[in-house]
Specification:
mainly beta; 8-stranded mixed barrel; 1 helix; 3% helix; 39% strand; disordered N terminus
Length: 199
């Protein structure tokens, strides 16, 4: 069970079709767990896991993503950092969790859009089961995953344990905003992509 909740600010904004100079920025937020629950003492179902190496690039051919990845941590207020809005083509990797290819869920997040237009994860909802995701690592290696499923959750029902909870082997989670804009300018939902390692 997670010890508490955090908020990821700025995963998506919505200002499409408006003049970017005059429009206010609308920030979305995601409820997430601050820590991954302790790992049980069970052998990995997938004994082949990669050594630690930070991700440096994310490639998703189906939706045309070929983007740099930067580590994100926590803000001083306890919220999870996201890539800056002035770098909408950048993906954030939650560095307080596993690196892609290590045992456990590696979590990558990106903006859906900004006031200037679509951002890196704008087409994330177009992914389908079986689509390939590649992550290039700082050590020069590449780890590959296949989409298992895409889910949409109301932010008030964010699946903290599913996203951050321990897994028997390497897993990947991609997160962006979804749903519609509420009156406060925040998206109502989150899109969560679950992906399994390619043997």
């Amino acid at each position: 069970m997670a010890a508490g909740l955090l908020v990821i600010g700025g995963v998506g904004t919505a200002m499409l079709g408006r003049d970017p100079g005059n429009a206010p920025v609308r920030i979305a937020s995601v409820a997430v767990a601050p820590t991954v629950p302790p790992a049980p003492d069970v052998p990995s179902a997938d004994p082949v896991t990669a050594a630690f190496s930070p991700p440096v690039r994310l490639v998703i051919p189906r939706i045309g993503v070929d983007a740099p990845v930067q580590g994100v941590g926590l803000n001083t207020d306890g919220t999870v950092e996201v890539p800056p809005l002035d770098r909408p083509a950048e993906v954030g990797w939650y560095r307080n969790g596993p690196a892609p290819g290590q045992r456990g869920p590696a979590v990558l997040l990106g903006h859906y859009d900004t006031r200037r237009g679509p951002a890196v994860f704008n087409r994330l909802p177009d992914l389908r089961a079986g689509d390939r995701i590649e992550i290039r690592r700082a050590d020069g290696g590449t780890v590959a995953f296949r989409v298992r499923e895409l889910r949409q959750y109301a932010k008030s029902a964010f699946p903290t344990e599913l996203v951050y909870g321990d897994t028997a082997g390497p897993q990947l989670r991609l997160i962006t905003c979804g749903g519609s804009l509420a009156g406060d300018g925040h998206y109502t939902d989150n899109i969560v992509v679950l992906a399994d390692p390619v043997p």
